[in-house]
Amino acid sequence: MKISYYPGCTLKNNAKNFEDSTLCSLKHLGVEVEELPRWNCCGTVFSFATDDLIHHVAPIRNLIRVKESDSDKVMTLCAMCYNTLKRANNRVKNDPDSLEKINNFMDREEVEYTGDVKILHLLELLRDEIKFENLAKKVVKPLKNLKVANYYGCLLVRPKEIGFDDLENPVILENLTAVLGAEPIDFPYKTECCSAYQTVDKPEVVAERTYHILTSAQEQGAEVMAVSCPLCAFNLDHRQKDTLRKYPEFKNVPVLYFTQLIALALGCAVEDLRLDLHYVDPKPVLKEKGLI
Amino acid sequence: MRINISRAKIKDDFVAKVEKISGQNLLACYQCGKCSAGCPAVSEMDILPNQIIRYAQLSLKDELLKSKSIWICASCLTCNSRCPKGINIAEVIEAIRLILLRKRQDHLRVEKLTDEQKENLPPIALISSMRKFTS
């Protein structure tokens, strides 16, 4: 299997652990990943305004790159890229007038876009194309006794036409972590917003939200949290510093990308996990469980 | 808090502008309060999501444009997904923000970010904040 891949900005920086662990895992699963040439930032957020087309140019330009590489399907890892690309695509697909205006604006592009690229999140690729039962066969190091709280945040599940699982109670990550041999933990804050970009000018709001999300998972016995968005990862991991300042009794929780858990279970080298990029060190708990 | 409601205010073009930019029908709201019940940001808000819709219906422009709430909403879309009337509340809040941003009244002051902030924040945080909070 071969798939076009759109990384997005943060995957090449702070979230290198997300990218490296994914690439290693997909290699083990026999998937050939082809990074899009000349991709650009998708804009990270979808613009809601009815009269704002300029903010859809960046995501649509990336979809043109997909067509140029003779593909009609692209995979993303970042929840924000996934949401933005897919929503922008839906907007032009359902609104010929917007599509025409955007195409006219990008008249130097050689491909005239028609809205026909399929945007896939890695989780969909794993569930629907590779299939979890095939993933299970490749597990060489089951994540035995590791209690994982799976956090979805907002953009994988909302709005409904974008999400690929139940809006209020998604289970795809729980099903995945169970396949890896870990013990998924249910907790009520799994789709609660982490405050996203408020982290720039209101970090105290994020620290508060992080406290509630993480302690809720801890109360259910979670030892680590799995995430799929680099902004959630930053807020839930790096902002624990601010959380601890506000709540001195707070106990740190390591936050990992779900792909780092896959990479571990499939036998990738520990270097592919890039555990050095975390604020709360996940190594002690992984060592305790005999996983590294 | 004292609020003055008047016919002249309601006829102001603010209501029409919010409806046009957001693409939402404000009068569809029957004030059930589900949006505010599910909103994770209410503890930081001065006007709750259901109140924002009510204020917008009545064209309480000044109250909305100076409210903290419009900058606290991070568009998580929990309100939208639970509204029994199908109103996209986050879109209404974005329209109110845009009325200010389109007059170049930025909320995020990029020039005031410290070198430390710029160095430590991931690109995804800076870009999304700039996109939603600057003109």
Highlighted features:
heterodimer; A: 292 residues; alpha/beta; Glutathione S-transferase Yfyf (Class Pi), Chain A, domain 2; Rossmann fold; four-stranded parallel β-sheet; globular; B: 135 residues; mainly alpha; Fumarate Reductase Iron-sulfur Protein, Chain B, domain 2; 2 domains; 0% strand
Q: Topology, pairings included?
A:
The complex is a heterodimer of chains A (292) and B (135).
Chain A: E1 2-6, H1 16-28, E2 32-35, H2 57-68, E3 73-76, H3 79-94, H4 96-105, E4 118-121, H5 122-130, H6 132-138, E5 147-150, H7 172-179, E6 183-185, H8 198-201, H9 203-219, E7 224-227, H10 230-238, H11 240-246, E8 255-257, H12 258-266, H13 283-288
Parallel strand pairs in A: 1-2, 1-3, 3-4, 5-6, 5-7, 7-8
Helix pairs in contact in A: 1-12, 2-3, 3-4, 5-6, 9-11
Chain B: H1 7-10, H2 13-22, H3 34-38, H4 49-57, H5 61-65, H6 69-72, H7 78-82, H8 89-101, H9 115-120, H10 123-133
- Helix fraction of chain A by DSSP (H/I, runs of at least 4): 40-55%
How far apart are the termini of chain B?
31 Å
- The CATH class assignment of the largest domain in chain A is Alpha Beta
- The named CATH superfamily of the largest domain in chain B: Alpha-helical ferredoxin
Shape descriptor of chain B reads globular
Task: Identify low-pLDDT runs of chain B.
Answer: none
The total of helices of chain B stands at 10
Q: What is the string of helix and strand elements of chain B?
A: HHHHHHHHHH
Question: In angstroms, what is the radius of gyration of chain B?
Answer: 16 Å
Q: In which range does the helix fraction of chain B lie?
A: 40-55%
**How is the main sheet of chain B built?**
none
Strand order of the largest sheet of chain A: 2-1-3-4
Radius of gyration of chain A: 19 Å
How would you characterize this protein structure?
The complex is a heterodimer of chains A (292) and B (135). The two termini of chain A are 29 Å apart. Chain A is α/β, with parallel strands linked by helices and 292 residues long. In chain A, 43% of the residues lie in helices and 11% in strands. Chain A has two domains: 2-122, Glutathione S-transferase Yfyf (Class Pi), Chain A, domain 2; 140-288, 3-Layer(aba) Sandwich (Rossmann fold). Chain A has helices spanning 16-28, 57-68, 79-94, 96-105, 122-130, 132-138, 172-179, 198-201, 203-219, 230-238, 240-246, 258-266, 283-288, and strands at residues 2-6, 32-35, 73-76, 118-121, 147-150, 183-185, 224-227, 255-257. Chain A is globular and about 55 Å long. With 135 residues, chain B is mainly alpha-helical. Chain B has two domains: 7-103, Fumarate Reductase Iron-sulfur Protein, Chain B, domain 2, CATH 1.10.1060.10; 108-135, no CATH class. Chain B has helices spanning 7-10, 13-22, 34-38, 49-57, 61-65, 69-72, 78-82, 89-101, 115-120, 123-133. In chain B, helix 2 (13-22) packs across helix 8. Chain B is globular, with a radius of gyration of 16 Å. Classes of the chains: A alpha/beta (292), B mainly alpha (135). Chains A and B meet through helix 8, helix 9 and helix 10 of A and helix 2, helix 7, helix 8 and helix 10 of B.
